[in-house]
Structures are given as structure tokens and as C-alpha cells.
Amino acid sequence: MAAAELEYESVLCVKPDVNVYRIPPRTSNRGYRASDWKLDHPDWTGRLRVTSKGKTAYIKLEDKVSGELFAQAPIDQYPGIAVETVADSSRYFVIRIQDGTGRSAFIGIGFTDRGDAFDFNVSLQDHFKWVKQETEISKESQEADTRPKLDLGFKEGQTIKLNIGNMTSKKGGAAKPRVSGSGGLSLLPPPPGGKIAVPPIPPPSSTAIANHVTPPPVQKSCNASSADILLDLDAPAAASKAPVSATTDLWGDFSTASSAVPNQAPQQSNWVQF
């Protein structure tokens, strides 16, 4: 009851001109033929609307001006006995109309324009194609509900193991890093802290230069004057411990060689005089 209350009527097709014919009863199994009707003298002329409510379609024949319902034909399936095509034309159909008391009758309808007949036929085909899809979907959902559901939850005490890269191996050591490139070089991962910030070197300031202490100069002699210290000159001859006479030859005479032993007769010199 709740599902029936939610159903609404939708319009599938509207054609402003349709002719209705009273047809003779079919006496054999052969199809209907429009040539047996009085096509030049239709029994009624009006408007045709094709509507749907739920899975049932309705062909409604209405007055053009007032919209009063002349007759309607409920259709449960198409093609079927409720709507049939004729054997000799594509513009004429035979429909089964019903009244509120359950009585039914077969009448013929026809369109002046062939395009109107095509739209009428396609609207019914599309509706029942949708009904077929809805039936299949509903059937699949019912079968899915009847199937036993899989219990994919963890049982009590059940655990799983995950194999994640760069984790500790079975021997207790860390997993080896992957080899990058053809040279076999292994690249270590970057540090966890991101980039290492190197502290900048401060420029030398005037305060550091002023605080710099220069070691005092080494004094060579206490008797040296300040000029000798600044010019780094040798001590004067007077300050030396063993004064040497200007006439004394430090190297001796190259022409003769003195004897190393006193009171010994001089020997012939080995030096060659230049």
C-alpha cells in the first residue's frame, strides 16, 4: 500500500490528432488489415496521450477541447495483446480498451502523419525496456539478500601480520636499503629532521680586532737600542764577548800554514799559493 501511494503518473507521449475506427471481429489467425476498415470515415477523432504509472502504461483517448476521457487501454507488456500492429500499414494499430467495470473491446487507431505513429511506437518500447531493467535489478537484489553473508570480521584472538618495507628483518638487523642505479651504490634516507641548517659565519667586527692582543717583540739584548730592536740589527762590535782586532786574519794566511804543535820545525806547506 505504501509503495502504491508513492507511484505517480508521467506522460510519455502526446499526439494532437488520432482517428478511431470500429473494426470487425477477427475470424482467423491472420493479422489485422487496415484496408478492411473505413479509413475515410473515422468513428471518432481526438487527442492521444501515453502515460505510465509504475510498470503499467496507459493509452488515453481524450477530447481535443475539453480533455474529457473517451476511452483508455491499460498495457502490461509490449508487444502484446493489448497493442497490435496491422499487417498492411505502419500508421495503424489495434488496441484493447477497458472501462471501469472490466469490460473490454478492440478498436483501431490511426495517425495521419507517419512520424506520429513512429513516436507512439517508440514511447511504448522505451517504457517496457525500463520495466525489464527494473525487474532484473530487483531480482538480483533479492537473490543477494537470500545468499549467506560473508563474515569478514576478526575472530576473538585473531591477528594479522603486515610486511612493511624498511622494517626490522627476522635476524634482528635493519633491512638493507635498496640499491640505486647500476653502480650498486646504496642511498641512505634523509634525516628525519629535514634539511640541516648550517649556522652562518659572523663577519669580523671592530670589537674583535680591538681586543686582539699582539705579543711583544723579543728583545735580543738588553744593551741594544730601540732603533736596533725596530730595525732588527746585530749587536755592535763593542757588545761582543771576544773583541777581534781589525788586523787579525780570521782565516790565516792562505800562503802558509802554521803548525799546530809549538817549538816544532816548520815543514813545507801543502797550500798552493794563488
Automatic annotation (TrEMBL):
Subcellular location, record wording: Cell membrane; Cytoplasmic vesicle, Clathrin-coated vesicle membrane
Family, per entry: Belongs to the NECAP family.
Stated role: Involved in endocytosis.
Transmembrane segments: none
InterPro entries, per database record: NECAP_PHear, PH-like_dom_sf
Annotated coiled-coil segments of the chain: none
Superkingdom field: Eukaryota
BP GO terms, sorted: endocytosis; protein transport
Gene Ontology, cellular component aspect: clathrin vesicle coat; plasma membrane
Protein name: Adaptin ear-binding coat-associated protein 1
Domain NECAP PHear: start-end pairs: 8-165
The encoding gene: NECAP1
Region (Disordered): 167-203
